[in-house]
Amino acid sequence: MTTPTRHDFESSLATFHDAVEAYIGTDAGRLGRPGTTVHPLAERDESGVASAYRIADSTTIRCAHRHAGWLSELAGDETIELAAFDRWCANRGGTLLGGGLARLLADERPPPPVMTTGSAIRPIRRDDPSDQADLRRFLAAIDADDVDAAEIDIDDIDPAAVLALDPTGTAAAFASWRPWADDGRFGDIGIVTGPGHRRAGWGQVAVSAVIEMAFDRGYIPMYRHNDDNRPSERLAGALGFVEVARLRAWTLPEPPGNPG
Predict the structure, then answer these.
(1) 74's torsion region: left (phi>0), alpha (psi -120 to 50) or beta?
(2) Residues 64-75: what's their mean pLDDT?
(3) 26: which of 168, 171, 193, 254 is 20 to 30 A away, CA to CA?
(4) CB under 8 Å to 231, separation ≥6 — which residues?
(5) What is the mean pLDDT of residues 140-166?
(6) 92-129: buried (b, 16+ CB within 10 Å) or exposed (e) per residue?
């Protein structure tokens, strides 16, 4: 990757739209036009999951083939909001799986946070047994759901990772990024903060460090989180990340007239 001289939000957003259009299988430029489209996929046929993506001026629904005709009630020139998609699924006996957001930095690189005297950023090397052991100790105190939400795999540490250490040398937060699975031009960031260090700015310190690492290696920093994760929402806002995509996912029952 080449190192960018500066952050350009419009360029990053266009790159993101190109990546999403390729991922969801819609026509190039579709996200810039109002409307709602339905895309049946073989990979959804077994699970019966229907996902609605609200991006730019459009909504795209990905679903099982057996649900495509049913969901076509929502398709058309009007861009439906995700709340309407939620109501439609709930009224038909669906089960909500959850929702998520993707964010990109709106402006230039955020200024580095003010660090407490004696605090430090410690890079974590995936091939260093000592680093792995320290990370295991830190994660042992974290709720497993939080670790899963941050997509942290202790056996496959991201290529760029840091621990933020408080003045006593105690690990306060862990952040990392790896190339986004759907488009390797983006650095997909994960963050967890220790129970005794929350709401004290340590997550911001750690994420700021990995943002710099992503930029220095030529990647576009991206921050994704569940839509009910208020701490992540606050952290993203403090660092200048803005919403560029929102997702809601449901499991749908068999449609009317389908024997199953």
Answers:
(1) alpha
(2) 96
(3) 254
(4) 193, 198, 199, 203
(5) 89
(6) bebeeeebbbbbbbbeebbeebebeeebebbebebeee
Geometric angle at alpha carbon 189, from 188 and 190, rounded to 5°: 130
Strand partners, 122: 163
- Strands across the sheet with 220-226, in order? 35-40, 58-63, 49-55, 241-251, 95-105, 220-226, 183-193, 171-180, 160-165, 120-123
**145: number of CA atoms within 13 Å, CB side?**
2
Token representation of residue 52: 């609605």
Give tens-digit pLDDT for 1-19.
445 435 689 999 999 999 9
Which pLDDT belongs to residue 151?
Answer: 86
Percentage with pLDDT > 90 across the chain: 71
Give the three-state DSSP class for 206: helix
